[in-house]
Structures are given as C-alpha cells and as structure tokens.
Design brief:
The protein is an alpha/beta fold. It has a single domain, classed as TIM Barrel (Alpha-Beta Barrel). It has 16 helices and 12 strands. This is Proline dehydrogenase.
C-alpha cells in the first residue's frame, strides 16, 4: 500500500519520516502545511441517547422561536461516518485524557513545522480537542442567537439584506457584530439567551442551561487552543484550524475567533477556514473581516471549496432541513471568487489581512494572480498564499514556487489505517480531480520527451 495510493498522497507515518519530503519540496520553493489527520463526530450511541432525551430544547424556545433547528440536533442515523455516509474516518470522543493526547500530537506537528526558511503552517482540528456533543450544542446556541437577531430585524423591515447591512434600531443602532458580542465565551453561558414566554409572562432560557461540566469543557477547549497557539508562536508556525461539518462549524469558528483576538494582534498566527460551497460563506467572511477591522487584529483565512458535500446533502435530505450547500459547482466557484475578492480588497486596503487560496482550480489561481497584479500585491509580501494537497496538481504548485509565490502542499501523515479513510473522503468529495490527473500525466509525458530530446534528464531546482 505504501508504494501506491498511500505513497502518492501521504508523506509518512510520523513527523520524523516526513522530513525528507518536506526538505525536497522546499528546494523547489514549495512549503508544507502538516496535517496529522484526526476527525471527530458524534458517536452513534451518544446520538441515540441524545435523540431519546429530546435534545436540549426548552419550553421557551418551543413557544417563542419555533421548532429546534434540526441540523444542530444529534440524530442516530448520522451518529458517525458509518452506514450511509461514506468516506471519513472518525475518532470518537473517549475522555479528556484522549483530547490531551491529540493536543500533544498537534504540538509535535507544530514543532516539525518550525525551523524552516519558509513560513511554517500546521493544521489542527477543533473536534479533537473537546467533546463533539458540546460543540454541537454550542453551535446551536450561536445559530439560534443570530436567528433571533434576524427575526427582530425582519420585524423592522430589514429582512432580505446582506448580513452586515441589517441593523436593529433600539436605543442605539446595532448590527449583527454588536449583537454577537453580547455572547462572551469566557462567561457563564447558562446566564445568556433568554426569551419571553408569552403564556407564562416570564423570561426563560433559549436552551436548557449548560451544566457545570459543559462550562468546564468550553474552558478546556480554549486552554488547549491556548497551549497550541503558544507553541506556534515559539516555533514561528501559523495554525490553520480546519473546517468541519456544518453542525460543528459555528462553535469551531467562534472559538477560533476568540484565539484570533488574542494571538493575531501583532501578526497572523491563527487562520480560520471558510468553506465556500456553503450558502452562508460570504456573510461569514465579510462579518469576520469587519470584526477584525473594528477590533484591530489581523484577519487570516484559508479559503476552500469544501470537503463534506455528499454527507451534508444526504443528512439534510434524510433529516429534513434546508441543504446548506450551493446548488451546483458554478455557484460554488462564484462564491469562492466573491469571498476571495473580499479578502484581497481588504489586504490592499490596509495590509492587515492574510489569505491562503487552497484550490486545485487553475482558473481560481489565475484569477488570484490577476487580482494581485491589479491591486499591487506582491508575492514577497507574504499576504497571499497558495495551497494544494500533496500528490495533486503539482503542475500548479511547483511553477508557482519557482515563480516566487508562497505556495504550500497540505501534507497528511500518519499510520496507514488512520490516514487511508481520510484520503477516501478526499477521493469521494473530489471526483473531478481525475480530470486533473489526466492532464498532469500528459504534462509529465511532454516534459519527459523534452528532457530526452535535449539531454537534460536530471533537473536541479534553482530556488
């Protein structure tokens, strides 16, 4: 297996085994984003338990807001990545000690990423640092709070507007960012989010109270993130927090934002990931860009198209909520370029933002370079990075590196039995890459014939 599929797309089993490949790529001007693949989800047993208890909806929510958002409820048929949802390996939550082990693995990854002449990057997964069920519940709270704002705005005739354009006219005018700031993740969440119960004539919590243990889980996730960020600073590495399923993502993004507020004051250390196949991607990007501008920290983003499309659509269809994914590939392309242009404009405006264009699409890469030229953004500024998966689209990565653009390979590593399911999901979600593989074979054959004809069979990089 290591001589075939694994050898093509995985760098090695541990951080020591991958060092030769990292050094080889760097000789061609291509850096590495190290990724020890760890993915979490709700276990089926836990989902069944939650399903039987009726989740965490309160009477106030039922009376005042309506039914529970189905996509933020544990469902036993989608309790894991088994069954009808294919392709992703799952590390189920065991206990806090296991989360600490995941943190130690990420620390090794960070240290392996440091000490390079290029900026070092390391990828982490938030669901490996805490109990997924907590992230699910926290996501529901955040989404419900935003939906409550949208409901109030609609009562003032502000519906149908862009997220940042909606404002509530109270004693003073407030927008979505002001509204979101009312939730402080470092306070007691159970004291927040109350709504009127018309029948009882009193305020009730939007959701049932967090237990003391759940409050501690929030603090432990933040503490682990804080430790990882400190190691990143010490080793000159930037952390990329991977995006995950939509039912986890609001909590992941909010906790990432909390870290950005602390560690991105002087330079971009923490990068959040935005999945542009989501209908709400542009609103998420523009709100976070505006928040970073108001609070004075460096916005840092990785833009991807997305990696959970089939699972998300099947789950939405089976459970019965709106598909969160854009209707087709062209819609996703337009969303990607719209988000990208927003960030590039912000970089040109004040040089206080960074973006990694994580894409295998040649048109997107060409669009980025064209926009950089139009805006006067130079590769040497290290504000715009490019990224592709290891083993894919080398015909994009290596010419960019040789031309002086900061470009990186996303380098998964780990034991075969842990990494292969991760790659299986990549194959499921990116079937269109086979067309790119055909083109890459044609380019390789053309280059081989050129070298044979010119007597330059061996090549030494100039970088």
């Amino acid at each position: 297996m290591k001589m075939t599929f694994y050898g093509q797309f995985v760098a090695g089993e541990d951080h020591r085994a991958i060092r030769p490949l990292i050094q080889k790529n760097q000789a061609f001007g291509v850096g590495s984003v190290l990724d020890y693949s760890v993915e979490e989800d709700i276990s089926q047993e836990e989902a069944e338990q939650k399903d039987s208890r009726g989740s965490c909806v309160s009477a106030a929510e039922k009376e005042s807001i309506g039914k529970l958002e189905k996509n933020y409820k544990a469902h036993k048929q989608f309790g894991d990545h088994g069954g009808r949802v294919t392709g992703a390996h799952t590390y189920f939550y065991a206990d806090e000690a296991k989360c600490d082990q995941h943190m130690e693995t990420f620390i090794k990854c960070i240290k392996a990423s440091g000490g390079s002449s290029m900026d070092g990057f390391s990828a982490i997964k938030m669901t490996a640092l805490g109990r997924p069920q907590f992230l699910l519940q926290f996501s529901e709270i955040l989404v419900k709070w935003q939906r409550f704002f949208i409901f109030l705005a609609s009562q003032q005739g502000k519906d149908g507007m862009e997220a940042l354009e909606q404002r509530l006219e109270l004693k003073k005018s407030i927008d979505m960012l002001d509204w979101n700031s009312l939730i402080d993740d470092r306070t007691n969440t159970s004291h927040l989010l109350v709504v009127p119960n018309v029948k009882l004539g009193e305020l009730e919590p939007l959701l049932e109270k967090f237990t003391g243990e759940e409050e501690k889980q929030l603090q432990r996730i933040l503490q682990r993130m804080d430790i990882l960020a400190q190691h990143a600073l010490e080793n000159g590495v930037r952390l990329m927090v991977d995006a995950e399923q939509t039912y986890f993502q609001p909590a992941i993004s909010r906790l990432t934002l909390e870290m950005q507020r602390i560690y991105n004051k002087e330079k971009p250390v923490i990068f959040n990931t935005y999945q542009c196949y989501l209908k709400e991607a542009y609103d998420n990007v523009t709100m976070d860009v505006e928040l970073s501008r108001r609070e004075g920290w460096h916005f840092a983003a990785k833009l991807v198209r997305g990696a959970y499309m089939y699972q998300e659509r099947e789950r939405a269809g089976d459970i019965g909520y709106e598909d969160p994914i854009n209707p087709d590939y062209e819609s996703t392309n337009r969303m990607y370029h719209r988000c990208l242009d927003c960030v590039l404009d912000e970089i040109a405006l004040n040089r206080n933002a960074n973006v990694m264009v994580a894409s295998h699409n040649e048109d997107t890469v060409k669009h980025t370079i064209q926009r950089m030229n139009e805006l006067g953004l130079f590769p040497t500024e290290n504000k715009v990075y490019f990224g592709q998966l290891l083993g894919m689209c080398d015909q994009i990565s290596f010419p960019l590196g040789q031309a002086g653009f900061p470009v990186y390979k996303y380098v998964p590593y780990g034991p075969v039995n842990e990494v292969m399911p991760y790659l299986s999901r990549r194959a499921q979600e990116n079937r269109g890459f086979m067309k790119g593989a055909q083109k890459e074979r044609e380019l390789l054959w053309k280059e081989l014939k050129r070298r044979l004809a010119s007597g330059e069979l061996l090549y030494r990089p100039v970088y």
